[in-house]
Amino acid sequence: MYIIGNLLDAVAVVFGMALQLYMWLIIARAVLSWVNPDPYNPIVQFLYRVTEPVLYWVRKRVPLVAGGIDLSPLIVIFAIFFLQSFLVKTLRQLASQLQ
User: Fold this and answer.
1) How does 44-64 read in b/e, with b if 16+ C-beta sit within 10 Å?
2) What is the CA radius of gyration of the chain?
3) What is the mean pLDDT of residues 87-97?
4) Mapping DSSP to helix (H, G, I), strand (E, B) and coil, where does residue 70 land?
5) Exposed site from 19, 36, 51, 90, fewest CB < 10 Å?
6) DSSP state, 62?
7) Which residues pair with 65 in a beta bridge?
8) CB pairs under 8 A, 24+ apart, for 82-90?
9) 85 or 62: which leads in pLDDT
10) Which residues contact 4 (CB under 8 A, 6 or more apart)?
11) Is pTM beyond 0.70 here?
12) What is each CA distance from 86 to 3, 45, 91, in whole angstroms?
């Protein structure tokens, strides 16, 4: 059973790191929206390609706030915090019980 516990622990660590990285990509995308970035810059294109599917999905479900403020990055960051504190923590606790 310890093998399954170690596997779950490793999955939880990798998933937590991936969520952390995605959160920083969302933050970078939000900061870029405050300035006028070069749309042909490869870094800007990468950030848009990686973050737009999730942000678009949230934008379809949550309307813009008064003044045209887009809250989708904030909602995605809150969802990432929830997944980190619930799912990753639950996987790590389950892994420790199996070890």
Assistant:
1) eeebeeebeebbeebeeeeee
2) 17
3) 90
4) coil
5) 36
6) S
7) 69
8) 83/19, 84/16, 84/19, 84/20, 87/15, 88/12, 88/15, 88/16, 88/19
9) 85
10) 98
11) yes
12) 23, 32, 9
**Token pair of 70, please?**
């887009």
Cβ count within 10 A of residue 34 = 7
Q: Which residue has the tokens 């969302």?
A: 26
Structure tokens that stand for 7 in this block: 């596997």
Helix (H) or strand (E) holding 97: helix 89-98
Contact in structure between 75 and 62 (CB atoms under 8 Å): yes
- E strand segments, 1-99: none
